[in-house]
Amino acid sequence: MERKLFTALQGEGADQLNNSLSQQGFRRSQNVLYRPSCTDCAACLSARINVSAFLPSKSQKRTVKRNAHLKRRANSPWATDEQYDLFRRYLDTRHADGGMADMDVFEFAAMIEETPIRSRVVEYADPETGNLIAVSLTDVLDDGLSMVYSFYDPDQRQNSLGTYMILDHIDIAREAGLPYVYLGYWVPGSPKMGYKARFSGLEAYMQGGWKRIHNPAKLTDASHHPLSTAPIAEQVANIQLPDRHPTKG
Fold first, then answer.
1. pTM here?
2. Residue 173 is part of which domain span?
3. Which of 14, 114, 132, 219 has its CA 20 to 30 A from that of 80?
4. Which of 109, 177, 163, 166 is closest to 138 using CA atoms?
5. Could you tell me whether strands 144-152 and 202-206 are parallel, antiparallel, or unpaired per DSSP bridges?
6. Domain-embedded: residue 158
């Protein structure tokens, strides 16, 4: 049974709250921050790449070369018909039985546009045809870039566009002086999430802190996924919230 710990993300302190909780393993979905808190499983780990520790593999270098012709453009979080058409083709091909499979154009627009923080839609287009090839909804944090959701042309699967977008975000973060790229949740041993383990400099939020993952294969061992987690009250008590100044009456 899935269980999540979540809080609303709104008001003038939204940016501070998002930064603070993202550094504690939370993820954003529109105006909500959440973190898995299942009673008998701890397999979902928040993952990020330490930009200074990242070194591309030979395969990743080839991926960059294959997609070097794509033109990147970063826009305000505004949904377009072209984005939705690409999104639908991606879902129908890659995740037809997933939880987002029935998302309509209005729900898609809400996913893109309902953000109370600093977000960008990073698009990748073919300069020759003008066709949209890949998209990432990305939040800009104090300490990095958080890739909220990405999708791409399913007909170009051989170009490893998902990997390419992460590699490009590492470059963007490095150029901006940001130390991390947040990848979302990762389940070690899951075939669909295996690509995240192929990035050097990988870190995961475990037992209250970020830990460098040198050998992802070891995390599939049951000893790293205890059958119980701390009670909700204890988890909440251990969350560090941004400092707030007392309000004058």
1. 0.89
2. 44-223
3. 14
4. 166
5. unpaired
6. yes
